[in-house]
Amino acid sequence: MKREPLIIAATSDIAGKVRGKSFPASQLDKRLKSGIGWTPTNVQITCFDSIADSPYGALGDLVLIPDLTTYTELDFEDGLAVERFVLGNIYETDGSSWECCTRSILRAALERLEAVANLTLYGAFEHEFHLVAADSPQGNAYTASGFRAQREFAEILVAAIKQAGLRPDTFMKEYGINQYEVTIGPVSGLAISDHATILRELVRICAERLRLIPSFTPLRDPADVGNGVHIHMSLRDNEENAVTYDPRSRCGLSRIAGQFIAGILKYLDSIAALTAPSVISYNRLVPHRWSSAFNNLGFRDREAAIRICPVHRLSDVALRDQFNFEFRAADAAASPYLALAAIVHAGTQGIEEELDCPAVTEEDLSLLSESALRNRNIVRLPQTLEAALEIFAGNKTVTGWFPPAFADIYIKHKQGEMAYLSKMTESEIYAAYGSTY
Ligand code: GLU
Ligand code: MG
Questions:
Q1: Burial 355-393 (b: 16+ CB within 10 A, else e)
Q2: CA separation (Å) from 421 to 7, 41, 47, 255, 375?
Q3: CA atoms of 172 and 177, how far apart (whole Å)
Q4: How are beta strands 168-173 and 62-66 bridged, if at all?
Q5: 300 alpha carbon to ligand 1 midpoint, in Å?
Q6: CA 429/CA 422 separation, integer angstroms
Q7: What's the pLDDT tens digit per position in 306-335?
Q8: Rounded distance, CA 297 to CA 248, Å?
Q9: Which residues, including other chains, have CB under 8 Å from residue 394's CB and lie 6 or more apart?
Q10: How far away, in angstroms, is 298 Cα from ligand 1 center?
Q11: CA-CA distance, 147 to 158, in Å (whole number)?
Q12: Residue ranges lining ligand 1, Cβ < 6 Å
C-alpha cells in the first residue's frame, strides 16, 4: 500500500504551540475554502496540556482556514515521510475572525499601523535554542568545533529553510552549552511571524530526523544564559522605502521610528506578559544575562530592551536599508503572532501619542538607584509572570488593543499554567519548560 500524504493545518496559539489537524493532501483545494473544524476551548490547553479555566466549556465550533502562502513541504529524500504543513486563521462559523486567533490579532495590529501612519513593518525573528544532550560541552562558546558538532543538523536545517521559501542568514554555536542560534532574512507584515513560526517547526523537524531533542525554553537552568528571541524591525512607507533611518539624528533614528520605539518602551511592562509569557521567562529578564531588564533603548547594547543594531559601510546595501532595531525582551514561549501584535500596537500607540524617542542609555542600569531610574522614566521590567499579568490586566489602553474577550482568556490561560507548576520545585519547573518548549 502506498502512503497517503497528509497536510497538517495549524495555528500558533496562546501557549506558543503549533496545534492542528491533518487532512489528505488531495483535499488541499477544498480545505483552502472549507477549512478544518476547531474547538474554542483548545485555546485554554496550556503548554503542559492542562486545561485552564475556559469561558467556552464544551460548547462551540470554529473553522481554521489554511493560508496557502504559509504552505510548507519538505522532502528530505531520506526515505522518511515528506513533511507538509500550512498555517491558517481561525474564524467563527459566520465568517468573522475568532477573538483568540493569534494570526488575526497580528493582522489587525498591522492594519492599525498602516491606518495610523501609512507604514508597513519589515523584520525577522532571531532564535536561540539548545539541543538537549548534544555533543558540544563547555568550552565551545561560538567555536567552530561546537558548530561542527552539529554541522549535519545545520546543513539539513538550512536546506529546509530554503525549501520552505524562507531566506537563510546565519547558523552558529551560541554561548551556552549545546546552545545554537539561527537567523533568517527579513520580510514584510504578517509573514514576519509566519516565518518565525515555520522556522521553529523546521528546527524541530530537522532535529527529530536526526534524533536530537531541541528546546527553545527561555532558560534551561538558572545558572545558564537564556534562549532569547530577538525581533528585528524596521519601518517602510507604502512605496517600500525604508523610513527608519535619519542620518541627522543622534542615533540614526527617524522621528517616526523614534515614536514607534517610544511607544514600545512606554508600554513594555504591560506587554511583557505577552512577549515573555512563561514563569521562567522572568529569570531570563534580569541584568547581566544579555537579555533585557529595563524598558531602555540602547545603541548596539545587548542588555537593552530595544537595541539599535549596527550598520556598516562595507556592505553593498544602503545604510538606510540596513538600519534596524531589535526587541530583546521576548522568548519562544510566546506565539510569534501575539508577541509581534503587542509590539506593533505599542509602537503604533507611540506614533498616535507622538511620543519623543527616549535618550539611549549608556551605563549599567542595575547600578542606578530607584529614584535615578524614575527621573529618567526607566522602569525595571516585571520580575514574575504574576506581576506581568497584573500590569497587563490593569492597563486598559493595552487590553483595549485586543478583541474584548481576549485579555481575560489570556490571563486565565496563564493562571492555569501557573497552577500546574504550583507544587513543583524550581528544578522541576525548569525541566517542565525545558521539555515542553
Ligand atoms: N542569550 C541572550 C538572550 O537571552 C542573547 C545573547 C545574544 O546577544 O545573542 O537574549
Ligand atoms: Mg544570540
A1: bebbebbeeebeebeeeebeeeebbbbbeebeebbebbb
A2: 34, 21, 11, 45, 38
A3: 13
A4: unpaired
A5: 13
A6: 9
A7: 999 988 888 888 889 899 999 999 999 999
A8: 18
A9: 270
A10: 14
A11: 14
A12: 128, 225-226, 228, 284, 289-291, 302, 328
Report CA(181)–ligand 2 centroid distance (Å). 6
- Cα atoms in the Cβ-side hemisphere of radius 13 Å centred on 420: 22
The C-alpha cell of 432 is what?
Answer: 517542565
CA distance 400 to 53: 22
Distance between CA atoms of residues 29 and 387, nearest Å:
46
**Three-state secondary-structure class, residue 115:** helix
Give the ligand whose atoms come closest to the C-alpha of residue 181: 2
Task: Look at ligand 1, atom 6, and give the residue with the nearest C-alpha.
Answer: 290
Q: At what angle do helices 268-275 and 385-394 cross, to 10 degrees?
A: 120
What amino acid occupies position 32? L
Instruction: Compute the distance between CA of residue 375 and CA of residue 352 in angstroms, rounded to an integer.
Output: 24
Q: Is there a contact between 267 and 379 (Cβ–Cβ < 8 Å)?
A: no
CB-based contacts of 346, cutoff 8 Å, min separation 6: 263, 264, 266, 267, 268, 271, 398
C-alpha 413 – ligand 2 centre gap (Å):
29
Mean pLDDT of 163-180: 96
Mutate to test the pocket of ligand 1, among 288, 291, 303, 308 (most ligand atoms within 8 A of CB): 291
Residue type, 15: A
143 CA from centroid of ligand 2 (Å):
14
- Starting from the CA of residue 126, give the closest ligand: 2
Q: Tell me: the pLDDT tens digits for 385-408?
A: 999 999 999 999 999 999 999 999
CB 412 within 8 A of CB 43: no
Helix H or strand E segment including 341: helix 336-352
Q: Which grid cell sits at 423?
A: 507544587
Cα separation, 73 vs 375, whole angstroms:
53
Taking ligand 2, which is a single-atom ion, which protein residues have CB atoms under 5 Å away? 181
The Å distance, Cα 35 to ligand 1 centre, comes to 39
The residue length of the chain stands at: 437
Q: Could you read off the pLDDT of 74-123 as tens digits, one per residue?
A: 999 988 899 999 999 999 999 999 999 999 999 999 999 999 999 999 99
**Ligand 1 binding pocket mutation candidate from 173, 181, 289, 300 (most atoms within 8 A of CB):** 289
Report the amino acid identity of residue 275: T
Q: pTM of the prediction?
A: 0.97
